[in-house]
Specification:
The chain has helices spanning 2-26, 179-199, and strands at 29-37, 47-50, 53-56, 62-68, 71-79, 82-90, 93-101, 115-124, 127-136, 140-144, 150-154, 157-161, 169-171, 208-217, 220-230, 235-243, 252-259, 263-270. By secondary structure, it is α+β, with helices and mostly antiparallel strands. The strands form 3 sheets. It has an 11-stranded antiparallel sheet with strand order 13-12-11-10-9-8-18-17-16-15-14, covered by helices on one side. A 4-stranded antiparallel sheet has the order 3-2-5-6, with no helix packed on it. A 3-stranded mixed sheet has the order 4-1-7, with no helix packed on it.
């Protein structure tokens, strides 16, 4: 009889202990998240942070953060070019949330670029037109036009060569020809501004926009932003390659416009902040 009572006592203590543990566990929240990109692909290696607790998504895009105080919580998701926060209400026990993320970039201002090369390919009346240029801030620009016409602009002086085998000519007091440099900088600033405007409309049903990942352009590993648009008269697409890593991360290296009936225009910017020079040819 005493043995039975002892066994009953041990069992009662165990039940009470389990009850205490269960109560303690149920007083906190466990947050399981599933993270995907805009194409629906699971994202591995995303750090999930809630307060002072973290977890990392696996190959299925899932991670669980345990021991969270119930109530309104901020869930931070970062890694792989993503950086965002979500606000949720966590209940006691298990909670599950699924997120689709778009790439987040701190687009860098054109003013941070001191030197680069640029190639422009655009439709012309007699076929595609290509122009190449080298820009060095504080020095000048060197353009190579169609038929190998060259123009070097250094402050108030412009050098001009009409084609292969031709002599260079020097024109002083040509400050008004600064439009070459201004046009170059204007084009870069324009597509940076347009990119950020489109980025603000991600998820807007009126614009079909999305980030694509890991494409190469001009020797850079890039994230690609595409927009397809249409109105009552025509349609087209807009594509921008944003450098995803390295010293040039955040700069646009390629920008493309395609308009139905007008053809394609491509701006390539490369050798960003390289050791380039623009000098007087004579």
């Amino acid at each position: 009889m005493q043995t039975r009572r002892a066994a009953f006592g041990v069992l009662l203590v165990a039940v009470l202990l389990l009850s205490v543990i269960s109560t303690a566990c149920s007083s906190t929240a466990a947050i399981k998240v599933t993270v995907k990109d805009m194409a629906g692909t699971a994202l591995d290696g995303i750090t999930v942070t809630v307060g002072d607790k973290t977890a990392t998504t696996d190959a299925s895009g899932q991670a669980t953060v345990k021991g969270v105080a119930p109530g309104q919580v901020t869930i931070k998701l970062a890694g792989g070019g993503y950086d965002t926060e979500k606000t949720e209400t966590a209940q006691k026990g298990n909670n599950e949330f699924t997120y689709q993320l778009s790439q987040s970039f701190a687009f860098r201002d054109f003013a941070e670029i001191d030197a680069f090369r640029m190639k422009v390919a655009a439709p012309g009346p007699d076929g595609p037109v290509e122009v190449e240029g080298t820009f060095v801030r504080g020095a000048g620009t060197h353009w190579i036009m169609e038929s190998d016409v060259e123009i070097v602009h250094l402050g108030d002086v412009v050098y001009f060569k009409a084609g292969p085998g031709q002599n260079w000519e020097r024109f002083a007091g040509m400050g008004q020809m600064n439009f070459f440099t201004e046009a170059l900088m204007g084009m870069a600033n324009q597509f940076m501004g347009e990119l950020q405007a489109f980025d603000a409309h991600l998820g807007d049903d009126s614009i079909q926009a999305q980030w694509q990942r890991n494409e190469e352009a001009n020797g850079y590993d890039c994230n690609v932003f595409t927009v397809n648009w249409s109105d009552n008269s025509n349609s087209g697409s807009y594509t921008v390659y944003v450098i995803a890593q390295g010293d040039a991360k955040g700069f646009v290296t390629r920008s493309q416009w395609s308009i139905e009936g007008f053809g394609n225009t491509t701006y390539d910017v490369y050798d960003i902040n390289a050791d380039l020079t623009v000098e007087a040819p004579i």
